[in-house]
Specification:
This protein is an alpha+beta fold and 712 residues long. It is built from 13 helices and 39 strands. It catalyses: Hydrolysis of terminal, non-reducing alpha-D-xylose residues with release of alpha-D-xylose.
């Protein structure tokens, strides 16, 4: 969100007050501060304090500095001390004993090798230093306590603290009604590139972008995201022999929508702001991007290892296609007859009757014996997944129960919050109500008792933020993004309880901070086109830069009819991804409906992944332990190779395999090999790449693609 009018001025509709002088400090014990560590508290005035008269009619920002883990420093900025009633992300904190020193000119707070310095009785300034080197900071007037006067009737009294928009005349009474925002701006060193923010489908390097952290159902070709994460990695590579790069992460611990201006509003800073009277963020420092990402991953709950069978091939009924028990068995038989390894069969929405989603009851006209069908799939060695969502149609038999018992989100007038999007009269399960959670889990348990193995937890993004009342009384803006966490947690914990901790898995579309605890996530609704294949991968690599370890996507694209070329090229990509699923909207995704070569491609790459499973699962375990992704952006594995900084059409699959999907019909592909000795996994050739790296331009048929193993 932009508040400025150029570098010096502010927009007339905003009053921006910034800390000018830090005038007072104190150190609180962990118990006094209600933190896990000692806390440094710094009070800063919105004007310079030259005399006692300057202490009248002026606001302050109270800054609390604490540490939840070594090399992590938390900052809470507070204007008024008010409860915003937003849900808090669940953080895994460690006992830390920070080194705190205060002298007349400066306050210092150190956790591990990360130190914050605050100038006192001078121009307000924060510096973050890692291993003695400045990595970022909040410069003079970067912080902001902001009143939004847009839509207000301007009065005739000049607000005493007006810093920008000096023509604005407002009364004290009107100021109390203004919306309020808190802002921070953190500086970027020259050459620093920014990654992350969840599954965003625009340019991979985020410099120059405005990113709003709010989950939306907008497809993979828009600036909206199913998985918005208020976290970014800043990386400035050091490529000379003795140079060290500069790497750190910034996590904004706010569940309500938060806006980031990444080198836009001020081109050498990342600005972030949120509505309310407080703002909390964390600086996470490390020697490498992996180190930074691992610390963030652990802080937000760590990752969970999915069962080994989930890494095999998943086949879906697709969405709006006609299907029944006969169709399903025809697909299964066809895969087995063609010697294509298959691990999971997924039943999409129409396993239930239309207009009745979700009632969690099989459509008995199409599936007269669901228990028998599930058993027959189990007899083939397959696991069974069924589609669910947290919306209850008014036509569902469950609507009346949920309404009477108060299990749905309500409007402020006391009625159930409803609309006609997706299903007629949709209500939304309120997972802040413990009884509603138990009710929902009980409905799913009936399916598990039938033999269902896991669930595709679809949706969770179209959640009301306005005219909405939750059982726990929280701010609906905060509950919007957090909703998906409660939803996936409820389903995942039921699976852990019923199937065992090592067998639980969901196939989720939406996520927020900490969602990596409930794998696996897939990329949402993409198009059956090559450019959408690239969009999808960019989104996945951004998610992998945001604390998630596993990720999948709809092979062939979700929308439209896929061409044979798209299907075969996407099959290669999909079966060299963390998790692999065929799924579509209007078209079946079995290979023989495209051409015979598609059958060969599917067989070859399904067997290749099967052959590589010892490596893949070993790397998956190591990734969970380290808190890093299995599918890795190139900059993450090769942080000192500047050529890798912008690469978004190739990735590392674990520590040793490089994959560059072919995204063209004619088989042409350009990609980059970093320094080292590499062996092509499919054709066996070897190359030795010198310290400068090597760009490759090649052409591949449908039975091959660039997939290289690093062998030294």
């Amino acid at each position: 969100m932009k508040f400025s009018n150029g570098y010096w001025l502010g927009k007339d509709e905003y009053i921006i007050n910034s800390p000018i002088e830090a005038f007072d400090t104190k150190v609180l014990t962990a118990q006094e501060a209600d933190k896990n560590s000692e806390t440094l508290v710094v009070n800063s005035s919105y004007q310079q304090l030259a005399s006692r008269s300057d202490m009248l009619d002026v606001g302050n920002t109270t800054m609390s500095v604490f540490s939840p883990a070594p090399d992590v420093i938390g900052i809470e900025l507070k204007h008024f001390d008010q409860d915003d009633h937003n849900p808090l992300y669940q953080l895994e904190q460690q006992a830390v004993t920070p080194d705190i020193k205060v002298d007349p000119k400066q306050a210092r707070f150190k956790s591990g090798d990360l130190e914050l310095t605050v100038d006192l009785h001078n121009k307000f300034n924060l510096d973050f230093n890692y291993q003695g080197k400045r990595i970022t900071g909040s410069e003079f007037k970067a912080q902001g306590s902001i009143d939004d006067l847009s839509g207000q009737q301007l009065g005739q009294v000049m607000h005493p603290n007006t810093v920008v928009g000096a023509q604005a005349m407002v009364s004290d009474r009107q100021i109390t009604r203004a919306d309020h925002y808190m802002r921070e701006q953190l500086s970027l060193l020259p050459g620093t590139k920014v990654y992350g923010f969840g599954e965003t489908f625009g340019p991979f390097v985020k410099n120059g972008q405005t990113i709003d952290i709010i989950n939306r159902d907008g497809g993979t070709g828009s600036d909206q995201s199913y998985k918005s994460i208020p976290f970014y990695i800043a990386a400035k590579s050091g490529i000379s022999k003795d140079a060290k790069g500069t790497y750190y992460g910034v996590f904004v611990n706010e569940s309500q929508p938060t806006s980031f201006e990444v080198a836009t509003e001020v081109v050498d800073r990342v600005s972030f702001s949120t509505r309310g009277e407080s703002l909390e963020y964390y600086i996470i420092a490390g020697e490498t991007p992996k180190d930074v990402l691992g610390k963030y991953n652990k802080l937000t709950g760590g990752s969970t290892l999915p069962p080994e069978w989930t890494f095999g091939l998943w086949l879906s009924t697709s969405f709006t296609t006609d299907y029944s028990e006969e169709t399903v068995m025809k697909f299964i038989d066809g895969m087995f007859e063609r010697d294509i390894p298959l691990s999971v069969f997924h039943f999409d929405c129409f396993w239930m009757k239309g207009f009745e989603w979700s009632n969690f009851e099989w459509d008995k006209e199409q599936f007269p014996d669901p228990e028998g069908l599930i058993q027959r799939l189990h007899d083939r060695g397959l696991k069974v997944c069924v589609w669910i969502n947290p919306y209850i149609s008014q036509k569902s038999r469950l609507f009346k129960i949920g309404k009477e018992k108060g299990y749905f989100i309500k409007r402020t007038d006391g009625n159930v919050w409803q609309w006609d999007l997706w299903q007629p009269g949709n209500a939304i399960v309120d997972f802040t109500n413990p009884e509603a959670v138990q009710w929902y889990q009980g409905l799913l348990k009936n399916l598990l008792d039938m033999g269902v193995d896991c669930f595709k937890t679809d949706f969770g993004e179209r959640i009301p933020m306005h005219d909405a009342v939750y059982y726990n009384g929280n701010n609906p803006e905060g509950e919007h993004n957090y909703y998906t966490h409660r939803y996936n947690q409820a389903v995942f914990e039921l699976l852990q309880q019923e199937k065992g901790a090592d067998e639980a898995v969901v196939f989720a579309r939406s996520a927020t901070v900490g969602g990596q605890q409930y794998p696996v996530h897939w990329g949402g609704d993409n198009l059956s086109q090559f450019h959408s294949m690239a969009d999808t991968l960019r989104g996945g690599l951004s998610l992998m830069s945001s604390g998630f370890t596993f990720w999948s996507h709809d092979i062939g694209g979700f929308e439209e009819n896929a061409s044979a070329a798209i299907y075969k090229r996407w099959t290669q990509f999909g079966l060299l991804s963390s998790h692999s699923r065929y799924h579509g909207n209007i078209q079946y995704r079995v290979p023989w409906l495209f051409d015979e070569e598609a059958v060969d491609v599917t067989r070859n790459f399904a067997k290749l992944k099967q052959k590589m499973m010892p490596y893949i699962y070993s790397e998956a375990k190591a990734s969970v332990t380290a808190g890093i992704p299995l599918m890795r952006p190139m900059y993450l594995e090769f942080p000192n190779d500047a050529n890798c900084a912008d690469l978004d059409r190739q990735y590392m699959f674990g520590a040793k395999l490089l994959v560059a999907p072919v995204m063209s019909e004619n088989g042409d592909v350009d990609y980059y090999l970093p320094a080292g000795r590499w062996q092509h996994v499919i054709d066996g050739r070897e190359v030795i790449v010198d310290a400068h790296g090597q760009w490759m331009a090649e052409n591949y048929d449908y039975l091959s693609l660039p997939v290289w193993k690093k062998i030294d």
